[in-house]
Amino acid sequence: MAAAAAAPSxxxxxxGDLLGLVLxxxxxxxxRVRLRAVCRPWRTGGAARRHLRLPPPLPWLALRDGGLVxxxxxxxxxxxxxxxxxxxxxxxxxxxxLVHGDGACSLMNPLSGMTLHxxxxxxxxxxxxxxxAFYDQSHIRSAYVKVILSASPLDxxxxxxxxxxxxxxxxxxxxxxxKPDAISISxxxxxxxxxxxxxxxxxxxxxxxxxxGSQRICxxxxxxxxxxxxxxxxxxxxxxxxAGDLIETKSLPGFLQCIPDDPKQQEVYNCEYNHRYLVLRYxxxxxxxxxxxxxxxxxxxDAQLGSYDRTVRFEVFQADLATAPGRWIKVDxxxxxxxxxxxxxxxxxxxxxxxxxxxxxxxxxxxxxxDSLSKELFGVSMDPLADSGVYNMRDGTITxxxxxAVMSKLRSKPQFLTWFFPVDA
Length: 425
What we know:
By secondary structure, this protein is α+β, with helices and mostly antiparallel strands. Strands 15-16-17-18-19 form a 5-stranded antiparallel β-sheet, with no helix packed on it. The chain has a 5-stranded mixed β-sheet with strand order 21-20-22-23-24, with no helix packed on it. The protein has a domain at 14-54. The chain has helices at residues 2-5, 16-24, 29-36, 40-44, 46-51, 119-130, 196-201, 204-212, 373-377, 404-411; strands at 60-63, 68-69, 86-92, 95-100, 105-108, 115-118, 144-149, 161-166, 171-176, 182-186, 217-223, 226-231, 236-240, 256-259, 268-270, 276-286, 289-299, 310-320, 327-331, 337-341, 347-350, 362-365, 389-392, 398-399, 417-420. It has 10 helices and 25 strands. This is KIB1-4 beta-propeller domain-containing protein. Residues 100-392 form the KIB1-4 beta-propeller domain.
């Protein structure tokens, strides 16, 4: 009788383990923030996080104009990324790398507005441009192709490294986030004199490599404290870095080969019936392994690259670095994980830990940023999600990346998208 007469408990008294279960089933960081805003006990949420380890929130979509939206197309409140004096930015996991009008760089957390300046990165990029055969200082604002971090510099007591690919892919610039030190490493070989007899004995690829001295870098990744670079012929280069100290690195010859280039690998394949395939290549760390992803794209015979390309399949390979030289081993699954893939920002996540229906052994891919920048800047109508989707490695099928209602919203924005991975605080 006394129990029946007892007043109902307040929502503020919801046990921490139950609150944790609710949070665990909210895939959107925005929804988790709204839940914690209900009352003070829910906002602190410490007990809930101690009872259950929350799965990582689903990624957001970063727009070129600086906006962020969730996977339902809802805008995310954040500090303005594109501001006065900022020429552009690149998404870097859960941060934005700002490129200022004078070529200077900084890292910013869009949620908190916290900013970290990188004074030595731009100067090292400038030195790399001076050594370039095609670009000069006038290109410094648009030189950055991809930026990656060895760890979060805004939340760590360590001094992580930031690395960037320079636009022609022949150089990598590495900078300390907090120490005033940065270096540039070139993939370009010095020109050497070769006799006509030796030259005639070379393959076209060897002659191009010897005389042009260029082996373009497709992608880069930090893996087990080292920086790896993938070449267009699927060679893998590595440089060992001493825990953020670049002093010793300056004396090294640059990237060392751990998987040799394969001259048979091409970027464009011309097949029968005047059909072409474009192949893009990426590398990413996934569950303690270094993976290479091949993206096969069908290109109509008379179309310009970048206009009507459509992804048709993926291939995934794991780096075997235990042998000398190393090799790529093809794999048929991601071990229950999913890869969110893009030219600018990629990441592997455990599908089972992600609330919200992330498919295991799948690749979530964006429309690539290639050959359409001028169209975007001049406002020509384009579909930012034209070639995007989810590739299932188990059956080879490709499904829509987002619900049609969300796709319709985003198609009204004539700009490319990339992934942004918020961190649950």
